[in-house]
Design goal:
With 386 residues, the protein is an all-alpha fold. It folds into 2 domains: 1-229, no CATH class; 234-386, no CATH class. The chain contains 12 helices and no strands. It has helices at 3-12, 23-66, 75-92, 104-123, 125-148, 152-200, 205-229, 231-241, 245-269, 277-317, 322-327, 337-385. Helix 3 packs antiparallel against helix 5 (125-148). The protein is elongated and about 100 Å long. Keywords: Coiled coil, Membrane, Transmembrane, Transmembrane helix.
Length: 386
């Protein structure tokens, strides 16, 4: 008899059925949930450190190729800080592998400790993750705005645009993480705390049913957390968004068409007010990409909600399959080729967006310098005539 059969029997006829409290079954289920949670945290940290280390040489290369100002390179210490912080945090809070055979209370306390630490990390994500990037990128925007403007009004306007851009991006990232804490990690922490409180009391027929309910809820919350940031579900989400080359092509073609339009505008039309050719190419690519990509995300989200509703209805009619579904298929997966191509495209466009902003500011600086040179030249000619 598995965990859901216990729960179903308890609900259907608690008074008439004699059910033995199987602590080994519950211990295995909590252990499985705990190991899955550890795997989720491991792959999330692996991604963050890996991306930070890969971005360092890329940032140096872009800065050198674009002849960007020195403030561009301030992001490199921020990337090093993120990688070092995660490494030190994992050293101070090691995720020791849990082995079978320990009491249920042991697994519950260990999982509670790690869940509380993840809540603390995400609650303070602004200070250790977002703020270093805000400082470095805003310094770059301010530096370029100062070099590109010849007055306080122009400097304030350009700096304000950069500040608004950062606020929109990083406030969305912050809210996303706080939502994960409120909707996923805190309910998991509360369930674990209630489970510990129940286990520390003497287990009898009165609270055995509550313990089973709590263990099942913890298993379900673990799968919900994994959907947010676990490697397995992260890869599955990308495979669901871009399931085939047909979908990938539907994203890539409008992006390339927009980039070609930007290139044509920059090289053939040559409208100075539109900015440099690189800026027009990137903006031309990003706009159709975002429209198509987020349309696909919205459509996939609606489809997934319908599938989840159908699964919930099926689980309600067959509760014995509920835990089996969450505990199976825990192998490591990677994004498939179509999804991987779009993922690389997302990262590339994100980096190039910053490059485009820098190129636009430098273009404005060159225009202002040329304008000032013409004004000085005209003044010099007028003086000579006089």
């Amino acid at each position: 008899m598995n965990l859901d059969e216990y729960r179903q029997a308890w609900k259907e006829d608690e008074a008439q059925m004699n059910i033995t409290f199987d602590s080994d079954l519950l211990s295995k289920e909590v252990l499985r949930s705990h190991q899955s949670f550890q795997s989720m945290i491991y792959w999330r940290d692996f991604r963050e450190v890996g991306v930070s280390l890969v971005m360092i040489p890329l940032w140096l290369l872009l800065g050198s190729m674009m002849s960007l100002p020195w403030t561009w390179y301030l992001t490199i210490p921020a990337l090093i800080w993120i990688a070092a912080f995660i490494f030190v945090d994992r050293s101070r809070h090691p995720q020791r592998p849990s082995h079978p055979g320990e009491p249920l209370l042991f697994y519950a306390k260990e999982s509670l400790e790690q869940t509380e630490h993840q809540i603390w990390l995400l609650r303070n994500i602004f200070w250790w993750y977002l703020l270093p990037f805000c400082i470095s990128i805003m310094a770059f925007f301010v530096n370029v705005a100062w070099n590109s403007s010849d007055g306080l009004l122009g400097f304030s306007l350009l700096s304000g645009i950069g500040a608004i851009f950062l606020y929109v991006i990083y406030s969305a990232v912050y809210r996303l993480n706080q939502t994960a804490v409120t909707e996923q990690l805190e309910p998991r922490r509360d369930d674990l705390q209630r489970l510990i409180d129940s286990l520390e009391r003497e287990t009898d027929d009165e609270n055995a049913g509550d313990i089973m309910e709590l263990v099942a809820a913890i298993s379900e919350s673990e799968s919900g957390c994994g959907a947010c940031s676990g490697w397995l579900n992260w890869a599955e989400n990308w495979n669901r968004l871009v399931p085939s080359w047909q979908t990938a092509t539907a994203i890539i073609l409008p992006t390339l068409a927009g980039a070609l339009c930007g290139w044509y505008s920059g090289t053939q039309l040559q409208i100075p007010e539109m900015g440099p050719t690189l800026f027009q190419v990137i903006v031309g690519a990003v706009i159709p990409f975002e429209i198509v990509f987020f349309s696909i995300c919205w459509s996939s989200s609606k489809k997934q909600k319908k599938i989840q509703v159908a699964r919930d209805e099926e689980a309600a009619s067959k509760p014995e399959d509920r835990i089996k579904t969450t505990s199976s298929d825990n192998g490591i997966r990677l994004p498939k080729a179509p999804a991987l191509v779009i993922l690389v495209l997302v990262i590339f466009l994100g980096v190039m967006a910053f490059v485009a902003i820098g190129a636009f500011f430098l273009h404005m600086k060159e225009d202002l310098n040329a304008h000032n040179a013409q004004v000085i030249k005209r003044s010099f000619h007028c003086t000579n005539r006089v």
